[in-house]
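Hi everyone, sorry if this is the wrong subforum. Our group has a chain we'd like a structural model of before ordering constructs, and none of us has done structure prediction before. Sequence below.
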Amino acid sequence: MNNRLKVFTTVFVMGSAYGLVYALPFVQYIFYDPFVEAIGATNAQLGTLIALFGIGNLLAPFGGMLADKFNYKKVYMISLVANAVLCLLFAFNLTYSFALFTWGGLAITALFGLFPAHTKIVRFLGNENEQGKIFGLMESSLSIGGVITNIIVMALFAKAANPIIGFKYVVIGYGVIGLLHAGILFFLLDDPKEEMDRIKAANEANGETKKLSVLTVLKTPGIWFAGFAVFSGYSTYVSLSYFTPYFTDVLGVSVVFAGSLAIARTYLVRIIGAPMGGAVGDRIGSVSKSLIIGLAVYLVFLLAIMNVPAGTSTGILIAFVLIVAFANFFARGSMWGVQEEVKIPRAYAGLGAGVICAIGFSPDLFQFTLFGNWLDQYGNGGYQYIFTYTLVVLALGIVNALLALRYKKKIHAEEKTEQLKSAS
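Answer:
Right subforum, don't worry. Here is the predicted structure as tokens:
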């Protein structure tokens, strides 16, 4: 297998595996009623499970330190296998009490262990001029893998005698597919020992031998630019899910139409938009510029959606939503590449990814609750609050990307000055 094909295959399988580790934590999005029936939980208890899993985002920086200190392939593989094992254990213990244990365990395997190592590995698969393409392809493969996985588990569910058994088959499917991914990646991923030794030697040659901590990384301006890039891309992605009820409740379109549009928005558009956004970022020499394009287009068309009246032609609605979704995934294809653009050292790529995760995915801790409260308190009027919040995040995301570009120029100027000093 030539190197380019191997990189493509590795990114594809890793993207699929990345999506898979979130399948059980967010299983209620697809199998809500069977999940409730299987474990006998209330709606509030399901919310508790999501919150419990979300705490893992706060643990990610420490998982990043683990990925930097030890062999990050081993950290990644152990986390992926442990995630699959938790799925299998839960399948045979379908109770709410065991779900609490499982979701707590998933927070550790998926967010503490796997995510920082995953991001570090993907980053190392390409050079600094290929980050947009690499991460854009990863986003796309996440969607393709999700479609394939859901087709398989849906087929398993359909063959079951009742919804509870069907749900059990679904969870077993997640576990088995996870183990298959782990087996493939065991052979695809290279042992990083040589790369780690090279980075260590380079750091020692440059006198960079001090012990890094989360506080040290937080003092690095680039971390905040990269973290908020992910925050803006993820927060506005969360907002997309509220377009479906907005169309049915406010604009009066059918549930079938809104649901079909949501599927196209979530899967089809992601497959195209994410790699295109990353590729454009690499082509124009800046993923931050590509991020600005995506966020700006989203902002403009969200304003248009907020002002279309009920009874607007379905053709216009389809066009507006697909453009907004495309713009969001275009931005998501670029957002992870910002860490390379602002020169976050590869020596602590794992810790950096963990901190970026804690910042970027922090909307999980408040945004769903905030949006839900607005809808409960203001009814359909709550959508205006949701969309206004999204507009603010989009605007701040654009400002953040502009500041990242300025920071990038500053770093390049400093590097050039150092090179001239060394030459003289």
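For your construct planning: The chain has two domains: 1-209, 221-343+366-412. The chain has 19 helices and no strands.
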